[in-house]
């Protein structure tokens, strides 16, 4: 994916101020930055939910305007489904939307959802719901996956299981995941896109960012930059 001079304005407010980066698949990309930095705006533009004001986005081979939605997987910060729909029914419904899909029983096995596949989605705990959301995001064997703070509110065990499932499901996939948990980003994401007040601070290898800042912890890098001790680029 190549993003060039991406700008998003909301009236007089500029949410993205000419973002440039290039990251090729496969990769786990951690999208980080403080609240209001432009993370969700960037993800929503990549999803096609919002239109950018100016700039260009070029997707990797295998993604084009004709098959984009067919090969896109998404988890939003909040989801709304029918209160009366059960997990298996929800997966079966989403399966009908795509030409090429995973077998539902395979997803249930990978995500360890067998004990609640016949329960109502609305009755599930946060961790269970997020596993179902992950199954829905991957049911179409996507090439591009965009996850907006998917582990927020999950307990440590649920977060561990979520990441384990994510690694199993990603196959030649370009994945963008926004998170405020710097330790999980550092552990699982080989690439970083770091935003600060709508500006791009850094885009590239996670190790390169740590070496550049001469720090071992991504949390320390985040506190230095987003804590105001260093001006964003």
TrEMBL record:
Gene3D superfamilies: P-loop containing nucleotide triphosphate hydrolases (3.40.50.300). The keyword Coiled coil does not apply. InterPro entries: AAA+_ATPase, ABC_transporter-like_ATP-bd, ABC_transporter-like_CS, ABC_Transporter_VariousFunc, P-loop_NTPase. It holds the Pfam family ABC_tran. It comes from the Bacteria. Keywords: ATP-binding, Nucleotide-binding, Transport. GO terms for molecular function: ATP binding; ATP hydrolysis activity. SMART domains: AAA. Residues 1-222 form the ABC transporter domain. The keyword ATP-binding applies. This is ABC transporter related. It comes from Clostridium cellulovorans (strain ATCC 35296 / DSM 3052 / OCM 3 / 743B). The lineage of its organism: Bacteria, Bacillati, Bacillota, Clostridia, Eubacteriales.
């Amino acid at each position: 994916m190549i993003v060039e001079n991406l700008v998003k304005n909301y009236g007089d407010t500029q949410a993205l101020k000419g973002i440039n980066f290039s990251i090729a698949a496969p990769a786990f990309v951690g999208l980080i930055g403080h609240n209001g930095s432009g993370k969700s705006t960037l993800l929503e533009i990549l999803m096609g939910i919002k239109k950018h004001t100016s700039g260009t986005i070029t997707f990797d081979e295998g993604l084009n305007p004709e098959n984009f939605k067919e090969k896109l997987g998404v988890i939003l910060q909040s989801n709304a489904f029918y209160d009366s729909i059960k997990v298996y029914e929800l997966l079966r419904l989403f399966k009908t939307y795509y030409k090429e899909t995973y077998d539902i029983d395979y997803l249930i096995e990978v995500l360890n959802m067998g004990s609640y596949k016949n329960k109502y989605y609305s009755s599930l705990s946060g961790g269970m719901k997020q596993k179902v959301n992950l199954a829905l995001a991957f049911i179409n064997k996507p090439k591009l996956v965009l996850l907006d703070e998917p582990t927020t509110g999950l307990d440590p065990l649920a977060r561990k299981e979520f990441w384990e499932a994510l690694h199993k499901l990603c196959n030649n996939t370009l994945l963008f995941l926004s998170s405020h948990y710097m330790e999980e980003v550092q552990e699982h994401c080989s690439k970083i896109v770091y935003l600060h007040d709508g500006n791009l601070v850094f885009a590239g290898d996670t190790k390169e960012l740590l070496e550049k800042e001469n720090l071992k912890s991504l949390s320390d890098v985040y506190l230095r930059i987003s804590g105001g001790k260093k001006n964003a680029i």
